[in-house]
Design goal:
The protein has 985 residues and is mainly beta. 6% of the residues lie in helices and 44% in strands. Strand 31 and strand 32 form a beta hairpin.
Length: 985
């Protein structure tokens, strides 16, 4: 326990006396970077990363770079991709593509959470980096562990109130649900805390509704978010103990007033950030006065009074409206908020974000980052890195609880009150509480410029006693046994309360100490016949307060109990007694088990067999007729591992089973499949011969084995054969009172198939092919009838002249038995299509064709002449098609060629000569139309004519990245189509 507590202190404890520079190094945009280690940001030029939007960087507590990522690739501090650091399931064009957090309780390990773009795709996943590998440069050891699909491009992280665990929060797409995953020493919780609160994040513009940022306040009490196209700007209270969000405030009524008069595109909010003192929220807002120009600005709202009307009254624009795009915002270690300027070689800065809008001091082009450039994203961090407050670790009773505060200004003096009457003026004191319980800790902090009191509630938890349980021993047939470890809970607890303490079990002392792997399941299967299990008992409210004990799982070899057949002796003198050599059953009882390991004995009672007393002699005479005899098989080394069973011994006179004649029938049911029903009871007299039926039972079976063991008797009165056409039936005759003495015989049942004429169910008289001739098949006789029962012909071939129901009866002799069969068929005529026209609608990669037919009848439709359907509405890809219509009786088929106007959903201009250009299929029939192509933020990147070859995926001669793009198709008559498609490389 002590080692565990010390480790958490070293890894997690943050105070003024120690460095806290996990957010000191930034890499972002196009090969851009900043270094905050000196107190002021210094541009870095060695970054290897390009990312349009989301990214994350992590340093150690001294500000030394560890690694950075765009959600797809992970670069080490030497700016080379890590081993296995490719193919993470984020996306460089996802708003918050990644966030990095320490793997709680695992030294030198970090977790990268990633988000795919567009709100769908691969969703939320995480990967693990071990910095102890690859010579200290790190290695991705676990990659793309899936957590959820259908999440937006928003993610943030904040510390749990226990100061150790970390919440990772995201938002479900097309929903109002927040997902909060808790990361503890046991790993990432697979089941999130779900809060359904606030507005639904709707989907539109091919996933663009999932864009926008989410941030938690440095103190973890608030979460704010914005959505790029859904008019959602909200702030919530956040409970960093439970992970639940509440009290939503929708700020949209303010932002609605910022909408441009032209509705080509609404206001698009992207970045959001809190001030260091948690009282202000800043938003970057862009709009499009027209389709080709974007303007952007930044707004401040004061949330120190958490009331919607009050907050909306404080909303002020702090920057001039300028052309271009403000992107993400990120709080720095210097207390300033940095703003991304898309496509520029600088960042803008809010220098005094704690101040009011008039004093916050925004500076455009404040930090030069050339030759790198800013795009839309900045790296994000656990927001708690920027919090000013009390930090504490070690909350188990008996341990020294250590305290500290984080302050950006040097501390001149500090006065601690530990809540139990004890005080201290040390900057980083340790304190031993004398009683478990809840305490209010306060620290009066004095710096050169201010004095402030910080308060924190802490709980000192009781440490349980791990009582040593007895070994868990079982007798088993296998070396691997399922043990119910919960049966040991009471022994480990002793007199302690099961509601105050929880118990888990581990395979090793180290795993029990670290508690960093999943515990053993309560129903646990051992690995070795003798295995030590470690029980960890911990305070139900704090997993760090625990003790460990151990016990052994021991598997002893059990005897295998096999069924033993009853023993029937047929006694010729009929006196009912017989001398049984019971040792002849030893091999059957052992059934492959070694006699050197297991002993077999026989007894007259079950109590004697269980108690291992009064075993019978080897040569045993029954004491009654039909008597149960018991046996015991036990392990010679461990006699307590035993099994008992029994079998019956009896003595009866001999009997005779006479062989009956075989049965031959025609298949009389409707299926004509070689199966029919027999009354086997009719054979009883033949099996008996001259024996008295009152003294015997006769049963019938499908196999000799079933007959021998009297298993699965057949239905004597109504038996349907199990094998088609021919089957052997076994008869067993036995005395009514002595069923173990028996004889068997057999006979054959044969089923002739009824002759099956090769007729169709229906024949059609078409206008061009009247009076079809039908072949009745190769049989002995034929009789053709009309529906009134009149015979029409006695020949094999029959010419149809009338509509209606007809029938044919034929006969055939097989195995010396003549069988007949009658089948019916119908003769019909068909209505024909005279002409048709095709209407098409829809403008996409799929087009709807609707066929209108002249003529009355039941018709079907096709666009390939092969596959037909009942519906006259057919959905196709754009192109030229031959549409066909025919009656369902196939008398007439009509065809016409049509053109379906549409467009490609994606294209791949990668130089392989396949799908190199994007265009609208069929547009060449509208030569006066115009085509415009836009990127995801509305910028026109291509204008072309329908007869052009198409767009090759470039802008100003340079290839554009993979993404969704939008288009507008405008005809000369004013009709307009729009949509979006995907460029893939």
């Amino acid at each position: 326990m002590k080692l565990r507590i010390s480790f958490f202190f070293c890894f997690c404890f943050i105070m003024n006396g120690l460095a806290q520079k996990e957010a000191a190094i930034w890499y972002f945009g196009s090969n851009a970077g900043l270094d905050f280690n000196s107190g002021a940001p210094v541009a870095l030029t060695d970054g290897a990363m390009f990312t349009r939007e989301g990214c994350a960087t992590i340093s150690d507590s001294n500000g030394t770079l560890l690694f950075y990522t765009n959600g797809v690739t992970v670069w080490s501090r030497n700016h080379n991709p890590m081993p296995n650091g490719f193919g993470l399931f984020g996306h460089e064009s996802s708003t918050q593509a990644a966030i990095i957090i320490p793997y709680v309780g695992i030294p030198n390990s970090y977790i990268i959470f990633t988000l795919d773009q567009g709100g769908e795709g691969k969703g939320l996943n995480y990967s693990i980096v071990d910095m102890s590998l690859n010579g200290g440069l790190g290695d991705v050891t676990t990659k793309n562990t899936h957590l959820s699909v259908d999440v937006t491009e928003k993610i943030t992280a904040v510390k749990h109130t226990n100061g150790t665990d970390i919440w990772v929060v995201t938002h479900r797409y097309k929903s109002n649900e927040f997902l909060a995953y808790l990361v503890t020493a046991s790993g990432v919780s697979a089941t999130p805390v779900i809060t359904a609160v606030g507005e639904v994040h709707t989907g539109d513009y091919g996933g663009i509704g999932s864009l926008g940022s989410m941030k938690a306040s440095p103190n973890g009490e608030f979460i704010a978010l914005t959505t790029y196209s859904s008019y959602v700007h909200e702030v919530f209270r956040f409970n960093s103990t439970t992970g639940v969000l509440s009290n939503p405030l929708n700020l949209e009524s303010f932002f609605d007033t910022r909408l441009p008069s032209d509705d080509f595109k609404p206001d698009i909010a992207y970045g959001v950030e809190f001030s260091p003192d948690n009282t202000k929220i800043y938003y970057t807002i862009g709009s499009y006065p027209n389709p080709y120009v974007r303007e952007t600005s930044i707004y401040q709202l004061d949330i120190s009074n958490y009331d919607l009307t009050t907050i909306l009254g404080t909303a002020i624009q702090i920057t001039p409206t300028i052309p271009g795009s403000y992107g993400a915002m990120q709080l720095g270690l210097d207390g300033k908020i940095y703003v991304a300027n898309s496509g520029e070689n600088y960042l803008s800065v809010i220098k005094n974000p704690n101040s009011s809008a008039t004093d916050c001091d925004f500076e455009l082009e404040a930090i030069q980052i050339s030759p790198g450039s800013s795009l839309f994203g900045l790296p994000q961090f656990i927001t708690s890195y920027f919090n000013l407050g009390i930090e504490a670790v070690n909350f188990c009773f008996g341990d020294s609880t250590e305290f500290g505060v984080y302050s950006r200004d040097p501390i001149v003096g500090i006065l601690w009150d530990f809540g139990d009457g004890v005080t201290s003026i040390l900057e980083n004191p340790s304190h031993n509480y004398t009683v478990p319980g809840e305490y209010t800790v306060t620290a009066l902090i004095t710096t050169a410029t201010t004095s402030k009191t910080e308060t924190r509630e802490i709980t000192i938890y009781d440490v349980p006693t791990a009582n040593a349980p007895t070994n868990y021993e079982v007798c088993s047939l296998q070396d691997i046994v399922e043990f119910d470890l919960s049966l040991k809970d009471a022994e480990v607890l002793g007199s302690q309360s099961a509601t105050d303490f929880s118990i888990t079990y581990f395979k090793s002392q180290l795993e029990a100490e670290e508690n960093c792997v999943d515990p053993l399941p309560k129903l646990y299967s051992n690995t070795y016949p003798i295995e030590t299990v470690y029980a960890r008992i911990e305070n139900a409210n704090s997993s760090l307060c625990y003790q460990i004990s151990s016990f052994d799982l021991i598997v002893k070899k059990a005897a295998v109990l096999h069924p033993v057949a009853d023993w029937t002796a047929c006694d010729s003198n009929s006196d009912g007694f017989y001398n049984f050599d019971v040792s002849q059953k030893d091999v059957e009882v052992l059934n492959g088990q070694y006699a050197t390991e297991f002993r077999v004995q026989y007894f007259e009672t079950l109590a004697d067999a269980v108690g291992n007393t009064n075993a019978v002699a080897t040569n045993y005479q029954n004491t009654s007729n039909r008597q149960e005899l018991y046996f015991r098989i036990h392990n010679i080394t461990d006699p307590e591992c035993f099994e008992t069973g029994s079998f019956t011994i009896e003595v009866i006179p001999a009997i005779i089973a006479n062989t009956p004649s075989n049965i031959l029938v025609c298949d009389t049911d409707l299926t004509n499949d070689g199966f029919t029903t027999f009354n086997l009871e009719n054979k009883d007299t033949e099996v008996l011969g001259g024996q008295n039926s009152a003294n015997f039972n006769i049963d019938y079976y499908a196999s000799q084995e079933d007959a021998n063991i009297r298993s699965n008797p057949l239905d004597k009165v109504s038996y349907t054969n199990a094998e088609a056409f021919q089957e052997t039936i076994y008869a067993r005759i036995e005395p009514i009172d002595w069923t173990n003495c028996y004889e068997t015989t057999s006979f054959i049942i044969t089923v002739n198939l009824r002759p099956q004429p090769p007729l169709n169910n229906q024949y059609v008289i078409c206008a061009d092919s009247p009076n079809p001739t039908i072949d009745g098949g190769d049989f002995e006789t034929w009789e053709w009838y009309d529906e009134l029962g009149n015979i029409l012909s006695g020949n094999q071939f029959f010419t149809v002249t009338e509509l209606g129901v007809h029938s044919l009866r034929v006969t055939q002799t097989t195995n010396g038995l003549s069988c007949e069969n009658t089948v019916s068929f119908v003769v019909v005529s068909s209505d024909l299509p005279e002409d048709f026209k095709v209407n098409n609608s829809g403008f996409s990669d799929l087009v709807t064709l609707e066929v209108e037919v002249n003529g009355f009848g039941d018709f079907e439709y096709s666009v390939d002449g092969i596959n037909y359907q009942d519906s006259s509405v057919i959905t196709v890809y754009p192109g030229v098609y031959t549409v066909s219509v025919r009656d369902k009786l196939l008398c007439r088929t009509l065809s016409k060629e049509v053109i379906a106007l549409g467009y490609q959903k994606f294209f791949t201009p990668n130089g392989d000569t396949i799908n190199e250009y994007w265009n609208i299929s069929g547009a060449e029939y509208f030569p006066d139309a115009q085509i415009f192509i836009f990127d995801r933020i509305g910028k026109v990147i291509k204008q072309m004519k329908p007869n052009d070859l198409g767009w090759d995926g470039t802008y100003s001669g340079k290839p554009l990245p993979e993404s969704d793009y939008w288009f507008s198709f405008q005809q000369s008559d004013g009709k307009k189509y729009s949509g979006h498609f995907t460029l893939k490389r």
